[in-house]
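Private note to self, pasted from the team thread so I don't lose it. Backbone tokens:
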């Protein structure tokens, strides 16, 4: 510090303590941030290694890990990942990669109540909203109707067959208290009847950021992509789509 006379002032003991604590916090924060992004880059490379060229072979991946149920891909985004499911331990892949190793980014996974074999009428899939833009971070692009108009469909292939999905509704929500009567879309992964599906779609459309004009019948198969959002505490963002091919 330099005073009016031009002479450098000595810092007091409290000032020195504050300075060195601040410096330590900065160093630790920088280290954590670097580690975070390094982990994210490693996760992306691990997922890329599962692909064959620009594609993927689900039957071969199923031989490597039978927990895989499909692969999701949204054009012009980083969403290009396997989707896992472990009904006996629903959040097993929350912090694990395809090889079942620890991973901060985790791997997108299907709700335990959903089933591609029965099937249930709504397949609910979760993915992290990573700050480095990976995992399901990019599904929030659907808040922009302009993005939606250029990306009305996306791919979700399952081990049972290929699928193209058309977006029906996109909306913000949150995790509500257990006793709340609010619409909890994240508890609707086990829909089995046409009536339940119609009611679900009606409530999703009521929350949608814009009207897609896409209708859903009781015979349709739908998918719901869910990730964290930060507009409120325990915020969530969801994209609902129906299979068209």
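Design output:
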């Amino acid at each position: 510090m330099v005073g009016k006379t031009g002479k450098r002032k000595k810092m007091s003991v409290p000032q020195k303590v504050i300075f060195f604590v601040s410096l330590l916090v900065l160093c630790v924060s920088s280290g954590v941030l670097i580690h975070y992004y390094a982990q994210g880059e490693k996760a992306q490379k691990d997922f890329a290694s599962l692909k064959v060229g620009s594609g993927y072979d689900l039957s071969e991946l199923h031989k490597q890990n039978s927990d895989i149920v499909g692969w999701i891909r949204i054009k012009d985004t980083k969403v290009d990942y396997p989707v896992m499911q472990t009904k006996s331990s629903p959040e097993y892949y929350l912090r694990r990669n395809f090889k079942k190793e620890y991973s901060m980014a985790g791997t997108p996974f299907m709700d335990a109540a959903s089933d591609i074999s029965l099937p249930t009428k709504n397949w609910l899939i979760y993915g992290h909203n990573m700050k480095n833009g990976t995992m399901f971070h990019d599904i929030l692009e659907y808040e922009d109707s302009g993005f939606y108009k250029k990306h009305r469909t996306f791919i979700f292939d399952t081990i049972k067959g290929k699928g193209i999905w058309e977006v029906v509704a996109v909306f913000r929500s949150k995790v509500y208290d257990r006793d709340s009567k609010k619409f909890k879309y994240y508890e609707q992964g086990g829909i089995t009847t046409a009536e339940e599906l119609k009611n679900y779609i009606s409530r999703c459309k009521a929350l949608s950021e814009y009207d897609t004009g896409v209708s859903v019948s009781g015979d349709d198969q739908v998918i719901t992509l869910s990730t964290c959002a930060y507009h409120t505490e325990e915020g969530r963002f969801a994209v609902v789509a129906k299979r068209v091919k």
